[in-house]
Structures are given as structure tokens and as C-alpha cells.
Amino acid sequence: MSYMDYLEMLVVIGVILLLVKPVGTYIYHVFSNVPNRSDRIFGGMENLIFKLAGYRQREGMDWKKYMVSLLASNTVLMTICFILLSLQQWLPWNPDRIGGMEPSLAFNTVISFMTNTNLQHYSGETGLSYLSQMMVITMMMFTSAATGLCIAIAFIRGITGTGKLLGNFFVDFVKAIVRILLPAALIVTLLLVALQVPQTLEPAAAIHTLEGSVQRIALGPVASLESIKHLGTNGGGFFGANSSHPFENPSGLTNAIEIWSMWVISASLPYTFGLFARNKKQGWVIFTAMFILFVAFLSLVYFSEQAGNPLIHTLGVDASQGNMEGKEVRFGVAGSALFTAVTTAATTGSVNNMHDTLTPLGGLAALVQMMLNVVFGGKGVGLMNMMMYAILGVFICGLMVGRTPEFLGKKIEAKEMKLIAIAILIHPFIVLVPTAISAMTGLGYGAVTNPGYHGLTQMLYEYASSAANNGSGFEGLADNTPYWNIMTGFVMLLGRYVSMIALLGVAGSLMGKEPVAESIGTLRTDNKLFTGILIGTVLLIGALTFLPVIAAGPVAEFLTLK
Amino acid sequence: MSTQRKSILSGRMVQRAILDSFRKLNPVMMIKNPVMFVVELGAMLVLLQMLLPGILGRSSHTGFNIAVFVILLITILFANFAEALAEGRGKAQADHLKKTKQQVMANKRVGGGLRSVPSTELRKEDIVVVSQGEMIPGDGEIIEGLASVDESAITGESAPVIKEAGGDFCSVTGGTLVVSDSIVVRITNDPGESFIDRMISLVKGAKRQRTPNEIALGTLLAVLTVIFLIVVFTLKPIADYLNIELETAVLISLLVCLIPTTIGGLLSAIGIAGMDRVTQYNVLAMSGKAVEAAGDVNTMILDKTGTITYGNRMAAELLPVGAGTEAELANWAAISSQFDETPEGRSVLALLRERGLIYDELLARSGDSIEFKAETRMSGVDLPDGRRVRKGAVDAIRRWVAEQSGQIPDDLEAVTHRVAVAGGTPLAVAVDAVIYGVIYLKDTVKPGMKERFEQLRKMGIRTIMCTGDNPLTAATIAQEAGVDDYIAECKPEDKIDVIRREQAAGKLVAMTGDGTNDAPALAQADVGLAMNSGTVSAKEAANMVDLDSDPSKLIEVVGIGKQLLMTRGALTTFSIANDIAKYFAILPAMFMLAIPQMSVLNVMKLGSPLSAVLSALIFNAVIIPLLIPIAMRGVKYRPMSSQRLLSRNLLIYGLGGVVAPFIGIKLIDLFVHLWI
């Protein structure tokens, strides 16, 4: 049994390793702004879009203008979507006559999708019309993923380039959608349809059961949403049960396709970064650090799920299957553990098993990956966060070789450290403070369904998931209340944009600096030692912050579960 | 003087530092150091809990609260002590300097006559006359005359130096003594701005500005402190939700253990001590920034003469020509040098001694000295028997012999050429019409320079030698000294060009200089070390001045700059790495009462929850004084590649930082557990 498990995991991971180089190179060509073959295929379509929009002068932007353009476009999209959701009952393509969305839920939902979080406090089959699924949910899945890609590319251009201009946001945004997300989504959609995922505008099917009653089976344009949901590391399911629903994820093969889809772009970006930095090793160092952390967390989920729950074992239940509570039989422990590890690493947030029912340590791995938010991470954001730790590592270790620290030939000085200070501070702040507030008020802990250590983990998970813009739910938390909608809404907003602004500021500042020459006395950042330093910095500065709450939540649950 | 400067601790200094560490408890001063300020706030909260039990939640152990308060107070005092001690050392140096800054009477030129005024009343542009036995009343430039000046008060060098109007040796420093002759000096500084004044305020640390790197590191430490504040503050309601009661004193202990108190407490001491180490080398840095920049230098531009070589040419070989033998040549070369007091002349006699060759000293002494003249370009001895012995430039000797219708040996040309090609200077030796041979004068590289350059190369620093010599000579010396590059026939403008070229390639450049024409290059360089013997403009353009006027000290300054940064990095790493062990001590202790199973995390097997907390806190406090020596001395630094350096420091301070507290806390607990 477990040989097959290993084989399954090795094959899925192996395919990703093979995809990193070609996909990373393709992304580089898309954004390098050097004429290449992809222009011939997509150039015409992009020009048409710009012509229709009347956007002629597409000059480069400095970091502030780039950021303002990004924030403005995101705000406009959020406003439109808020209106669409509130008015969906009067809009077309609503065969099941679903009513307008309640304001606090709509607030939460538009933020959730614009920030690439896809925390769902609604259930798709009963809460959204087909128009909302397509024009709000699917559209935002494209645009939020494109936003993430743009910011990562602008950041990379900043730290690897010189001058002032980071590129044009709107050009990058259109390119991300036209050249990367749309074609990839088209391919994945067709694959999924071929593998029996529904794609229809018909209303829910009414089925006469053997008992003679009528059961309504929810349907809809599932495959198209499913593809971008993963490609864009979005994670919001068409159905409430997300990727554990047999229409979203019918088989082991679709499971693998969904894992590859959500992982491939995040995994390839470090390679793209290496190409921009004209030092592929530099990219591999970042990739390796992410990969080592990933394997460690995957092992933690897999082995603790495989070991199962000691309380259930004492009841005399066959333990050889591992902990199957909340898991789909068609995926088993391996397919579920892998999906959980990837979805929390790449901050997708789709689930093919209920994370609430993971063993304490399995849930801990998922939780910690979101707390770190650097293990591949969501579209672009993971790379940026990892680079932030790289700069921190360089700062401390650079001093240890007796030079004022420099990264990629640029000096790290007080201004960068101040911006980085904001970025490292915001994450623990928006995870721990709301958790503490929720632990103090009945509005918060009232939603908990399993009081005690597990209940604490439920709340912690909800905020970690929102802050990391992951969006997976620990579920078991009755979170569709104005309190939770508004709290998580703000956490998602802050989690998305504060670190983006701070880190793009770092890139802008580094870009404006004169590069310093490299010598044998310079700290090298493209070798094994630095990979170790990077992992050490992530664990020492990132993980230590969360150790007390982890001890009080999952660790306490694990220790008392005997 | 120099030994006095190096004495690190005296009883009085420690006493004063202890007093100062209490004075620094003042929160107004404390807030400059956010990390320690948080510790102080924590101590106050615990004190409050002690005095008014129950005000901050239930507290069962008054004794425990008292212990926590005392340890927190001691932690702050230790950090204050480190800073006070570093400042104290600076102050001691300043006091020493102040002694040299005595109030003297100056002869100020007013109208046509002189008036005696106190030196403190002198202003910029005043003209004073200083005669033998008088002290120069302020920094200035000689505008008339020449004098020998005793600068030992500043440099520690007892031999007087010659200073004269015009040229590169016209600047004088206040507080130095004129030993002979009389000079007219134009004062260049208002009172309080003189060289010594600036030096005093710098070493005292009073005007110490935080360097950019210190600010950046300070930001990191502050943000870590804020993060752990969030961690600890949020832990309280979270624990309440789980019905786990956490006492204020325990939470504050956790906070203090987690925030980087070790580096936070030692940071300013490291900075002050770094400046101090520079001063110990008798180098005056105008700012801490300059010292840090020295650590980053990629390219070093060094003058050949005086820095790499002794600058005077030494006789290295005797090359006979024509019918002459080496013994004959040695004899005549030595006789010609008998009265020659120049280093070149002395070196001829030294070479004979070294080779075991002899000459007729009696004969030489009986002759009359013929001094070197610019017209003849020869010097030598006229012997009583009428024979004239001469040495000098080859073409001058050749002309002289030719005038006497003497024979020019055929191989003279070839030998001369060979010496020139090898970078040496040939001196011909002749007696009347006979040329005996050539003395090969060689510019000698100072011992140990080659090794130094090798070290610099390992540190990634490129050395460029500047010399006025022709390319041939320059190449030879460059190869012998092992510098990476050289500029022959170098003019001051060339230096600026080189600096600009290197800077354009993103390199930081350091150079030394002393002349007025070096000033622009000194200003252009990232690190400019001026010689104290140099001109005022050179000193002003530079950001460091070497009081001993030894240009090769630039290499030491680079080492100190690197050491300063390394010390900061190493102690930061150590401080952060310590957190792991502290978590393992305190977290199980916090939760063990409510969740007995948590004891599996008590990997150190600490005696009791309270003793675990106290042991971690005590470790956190005592590590500060234990590390004061490293902060003051700097971490050990040997030139090696960055890769090896990093691995070494990571092993010592990173891994050491993880392991040391596990051992330390366990040991302390064995003792503390005896009581609780």
C-alpha cells in the first residue's frame, strides 16, 4: 500500500520538477520585454485590447506609479463585483433564482477573491448565480492571479535591474492573462472536461431517486472555474465541498492535474527570477530552500495521517488505512496529504479533504505553511516573501563576513530594513491579534464547533489562511457571521496589500542604487550554504514567532490525544 | 603613550562605569535603545505587581516576582555597564588628550607688533609667531620660516619633525612644541574646532552619530521586539480561552527572553569600541561611517614610496665593469661613501658589512668630503695623495671621466641597462679616469608587505600601486611587492581618474595621501587616510588622519572596519539563535500546570516550572557581561574568503548560539532548583 503512496507522490513531484525549467523560461520570455516568439501569437490580441481601451502611451512606471495602478485597478474590480453580487437576483443566468448577497458576506467575498484568498463564507451552489460564478468569481480568479504575477515580476525587475522604471502595470497585467493564464486555463479545462468534470449552463438536475423522492444535483460551468481556480492559486470551489466534490475532482488523475496546475507557476517563478538575475543558480537556491521546506511539511502531513488517530485505534478500528476521517476514498491518504501540503504551500486554498479532520500534526503542517507563507506561496507573493527572508538572511550574515550587507550587488541599508520591518511585522500581527481578539469575545469563539485546543486551532487557521491569502478553511468554524466576515475581510486586505507595498518599495529602492562590485570578499547568495541560511532565517524569524500559539493549539491537542 | 592607550581596564574606569550604569536607568535615556527600554518597562510592571499584588491578575509567588524583578534590573544594568565601559575607555583617552591641550600664551601679530594673548582667544586667520621652546597655540599653517617640531603629544613619536613654509610640510598642530628656530603660523581653526578638540569629542563618544548600518540593524532589532511584544500580549487572551492561567511575571520573563537583549544591550558598546580600536592605532576617524566604509573597501590605492617601499634606494649589488674586480669596486664605493650621510650612502657601507667585504677605512677618513651638488650630480672624497674618488649618476661619471680623457669600459652600457631594466638605479664609481663599476641601488619593499597584499587579496581587496617611477621600475617593484596593479609615472590627477574608474565599476576605494595635490583624490575616495604630517587641505579632504603618518596603516583600518561589522553580525545571530533554547525552557513551564503532557517538551529536564523561567532569565542576563569582552575586542578576524569566514562564524555564533543556552540554562537550573 505505502509503496504505491510513495510512487504517487514521487510521480506528482517529479512532473513538477520537470516543468520548472520550461515554464519558468516561458514566463521569463513573456515579461522580459525582449521581442520573442510569443509576440507573434499573442501580440495581436493584446494590441486589440489596448486599442479598445484607448491605452496608447504604455511607458514604464516607477514603483509608486506601478503600485498605485495596481491598487486602483483592484479597487475598481472590487467595487464592480460588490455591485454584481448584491444585485445578482435581478441579473441574468440565474436559473436557480438565487437571491442577492448579504452586504457583509459580499464585502468578504469580493476581498476574498480580489486578494487571491478565496476564503468562502458562502456555499457556491446555493449562494451564487451562474453569472456571479463567471463574472465575479472566475473573472477575479484571473485578475487576482494576474495581479500577483505582475507584482512578483515588478519586484524581480526591481531587485535585478537598475534605473527607476519597473515596467508598465497594465501591459504586464494583460500579458499575464493573455499569454499565461488564459491559454493554460483553456488546456486544463479541456483536460478536465475530458475527464468528466461538468461544464454546462443548465440548471441543477432533478433526479428521481429509487425511494421516489426528487433530489436536485447541482451542476454548472465547473471545469472552467476549476482550471483557473488552481492555475491562479485561487482555491475557491464551485461547490461548498470544493475539490473533494466528485464533480470538481472526480478521479486520482484529475487530482494530480489540479495539484500540478496550482503548483507549477509558483514553483517556476524562482527559475524565472534566476533568468532575470542572469544567475540561474540564484534561482535554484530559492527553489531548493522552498522545496526542502515543502518536503519536510509534506512528510509531516503524510506520516501523521498515515499513523492515524490513537483514540480511534483503541476502539479496534483497522488502522492500516491511516486517518481516513474527512478524506475521499478515491484519493486515500497519499493523494489527500499531497493535496493538503501543496494547497497550503502554494496558498491555493482548495481542499480535497476536510482539514478540520486532519490529525493535530497534519493540521499543524498546513497551518505552519500558511504562517510562513514562503513555501512556494501564492502567485508571486511566495517568491517575494522568500526574497524578503533572503534579504534578512543577507543582512545578518553579510555582517558576519565583515561587509555592509549587499544582495544581488545592491547595498541593504536602513531604508530597505524599515520597509522590510513593515513586511515581517504585518503577518504575525494580522494572525495573532485577531486570534486573540476572537478568543476574548463570544462573537469570535462562538463560531467554534470544537472548543478547547482544537477550537483555538480553528480560529488560528481561519486567520492564518486569510492573512496568507490561502483561503482554505479549517471548516468546522461557523464563520458566515458579520463578525467573521468583516474581521477576515480586513485581515485578507492587510495581508495582501501591506507587504506588497512594502516589498515593492524595497525593490524600487534597490533598483535606484548603484550596483557594487562583487569580489571574493562578497557574501555569495547562490550556493548551498546560503540555501541553509535561508531556511534557517525562515525558521528562526518566521516560525519562532508562532511557536507559543502552536504549542497551545495543535501541539497541546496532539499531546493530550492519547 | 601608546601602551597607556591600550590598557583596557583600570579600577577607576570600572567604578565610574558602574555608577554610570545606574545613571543610565533613567527612562529618558533608555528610550534610545528600544530593546532595553522594553525590558525596563517589564521590570516596572513586575515591580507594580510586587507592590500591589493582584493588580495585574493573580500572582501566587511573591518571592518569584521579586526574583524576576531583580534579574530584569540586573539585565538592564549589565547592558548599561557595557555601554558605560566602552564610553569610559573613550573618556580616558579624551582626558589624556585634554592634558595636551593646555592653555598657552600666544604671540599674536597685531598691526606691526606682537601682543601676548591666551590661545583660547585666537580666531581663524590670526597670525602668531612661535619660537624655540614655545608651544604652538592652535592648528595652523606655517607662512614663514622653518622649525623642528616635537609632535610626541599627538603621535607618540619622540623624534622632532621638520616643518617649513610652503610645500607639503607646512601644517602644524596645536599643542605641539617648537624645539628649534622660529616660525610664523596662520591659525586655521576657531577655538573648539581644532584637531585635538574634534578628536576629544569623537573619542568621548559624545557626538557619536549612529552609522547607517547601526540604524538598519537597530530597525531589525526594534521590529523583532515589536513582534515578540505581539506574541506575548496575544498569548494571554489565547491562554485564557483555554483556561490556562499565565502570570504577568512569567509572560514578561518570556518577552524579555525572546527579544534580542543580548545584541540590543551590546550594540552601542560595539560601535564605541570599534571607534576606540581605530584610535588605539593612532588613527583618527572623522566618523564611525568612515570606519564601516573601510570594511567594504574593494580597491586600495597605495603610494609606492613610504607605503610599499622604504622610499630610499639601498645598495643591493656591486657590479664591476672593465678590468675592475668586485673587491676593488667595493673598496672605492665604500671610500666614496665614507662621508655620505644619505641613506643611499649608508646602505653601501651596510652592504659591505653584510657581504664581509673590507675597505681601507683609514685612507677614507683621511680624505676631504666632496658633497653632492645638483650641477655635478656626484659626490665623493678627495684623498690626500691627490686621487679623487667619485660616485654618481652614470652619465655624470662618464662625462667626468671623458673630460679626463679616461677610457669608458665597453660593458658599462650593458650593465647600466641591466640595472635599469630590473627597476634599479645605477650609480657609477670612478677614481680619476678609471671607472670601476656600478652600484645597483634598489628600492626595497618593506618586509611583510607581500604577505599583507596576499591577505588583502584573500579578503577580495585589489591593490593598486601609484608611483612616479618609469614603467619598467614600477613593474619590477609591483611584481616584487605582489600588488595587483600599478600606475607608473603617476600624477595626482591620475589618482583621481583611477578612483573614479573604480567607483564607476561599483567599487569602494581607499587611499592614503599627504600633499595638497592629493586632497581632491582623498575627497573623492570612499576612505581617505591623510598623514598627520601632511597639509591641512589633505587632512580636511580625508575622513581619517593617521597621527603616526604611517600609510600602511590603511590595511589595519580595513581590518578594524570589517571586525566591527562582523562583531555586530555575530552577536545578532547569537542573540536570535538563543531563542530556541529559551522557548524550550519557558513554554513547557508555562503550560505544564494545565497540560501535564507538555512535560515532553521539557527537553532540558529542568527542575520546576518556576526554576525553568528563572534559569532562562538568568542566562539571558549573564550572557551580556560574558560577551562584553567580545564586544569590546571584536570577534576574531583573520583574512580569508567570505565563504570560509561565514562558515566559521555561523558555526561559532549560529550553532553555538543554539547550543550554548541549552547547556547554560541547564547548569543554572541545577543551582536555582535547590530553592524552588
Automatic annotation (TrEMBL), chain B:
Keyword Ribosomal protein tagged: no
Naturally occurring in which organism (per UniProt): Paenibacillus aceti
EC assignment: 7.2.2.6
Domain P-type ATPase A per the UniProt entry, residue ranges: 103-204
Translocase recorded as keyword: yes
Active site, renumbered: D303
Entry superkingdom: Bacteria
Name of this chain's protein: Potassium-transporting ATPase ATP-binding subunit
Assembly and binders: The system is composed of three essential subunits: KdpA, KdpB and KdpC.
Residues where ATP binds: D340, E344, F372, K373, A374, E375, T376, R377, M378, S379, K391
Localization: Cell membrane; Membrane
Keywords: ATP-binding, Cell membrane, Ion transport, Magnesium, Membrane, Metal-binding, Nucleotide-binding, Phosphoprotein, Potassium, Potassium transport, Translocase, Transmembrane, Transmembrane helix, Transport
Signal peptide: none
Function of the protein: Part of the high-affinity ATP-driven potassium transport (or Kdp) system, which catalyzes the hydrolysis of ATP coupled with the electrogenic transport of potassium into the cytoplasm. This subunit is responsible for energy coupling to the transport system and for the release of the potassium ions to the cytoplasm.
MF-aspect GO terms: ATP binding
Binding site for Mg(2+): D514, D518
Catalytic class of the enzyme: translocase
